[in-house]
Design brief:
NADH Oxidase; 188 residues; alpha+beta; single chain; globular; 40% helix; five-stranded antiparallel beta sheet; 6 helices
Length: 188
């Protein structure tokens, strides 16, 4: 697949088949994440990959996030709230859940650099997954379950989880929503 095709085909999938993802494919995604840029080549992003029983435990933890959505009921359309509850309750039945962590820091510049590096690693995973014929969804989560997620993924206290990626084979035909074209302003 040509690189531009991969970019155009990448979309967030929320419905997966239960088929396992081969370890060698996961290893290639890990390699793609390792190739992501980072400030001074610090490579702060670390992947914690859950399958099987650990994946099920992570899903049970993520299901709790919708209990705290009540405050948003008036802000979100009802169908969006129901879709979020359904997705967080099952993680779309994706067979793989990846947690992205970075080192804990109180230094603002270091934190910004870590977040940018984690974002670059995440994008490399998402694009590589598309190239491998996989579907994926980058998701954030309610921080009220962060400690439980850290325990499930066995993330030490010196690191913090900053995002999750669910991976697998799509169970539905991909639908890519329209994307904005007004995201740039040329100056000078």
């Amino acid at each position: 697949m040509e690189f531009r095709e991969v970019i155009e085909m990448r979309h967030s999938c929320r419905e997966f088949r239960p088929d396992p993802v081969p370890r060698e494919v996961l290893d290639r995604l890990v390699h793609a994440a390792a190739m992501a840029p980072s400030a001074m080549n610090s490579q702060p992003a670390h992947l914690h990959i859950a399958t099987g029983e650990v994946r099920d435990r992570v899903t049970a933890i993520m299901a709790q996030t919708t209990h705290h959505l009540q405050e948003y009921v008036e802000l979100l359309p009802e169908d969006h709230l129901e879709a979020a509850a359904r997705f967080f309750g099952t993680l779309g039945d994706a067979p793989v859940v990846v947690a992205m962590s970075v080192p804990e820091t109180t230094d603002e510049l270091e934190r910004i650099n870590e977040m940018i590096a984690a974002g670059c690693a995440t994008q490399n995973i998402l694009l590589s997954a598309t190239d491998e014929g996989l579907a994926a969804c980058n998701i954030t989560f309610g921080f009220w379950v962060r400690d439980q997620l850290a325990e499930a993924f066995e993330v030490g206290a010196e690191r913090e989880i900053v995002g999750l990626i669910v991976l697998g084979y799509s169970s539905a035909e991909p639908e890519s929503p329209p994307h904005r074209s007004d995201i740039a302003e040329y100056v000078g």
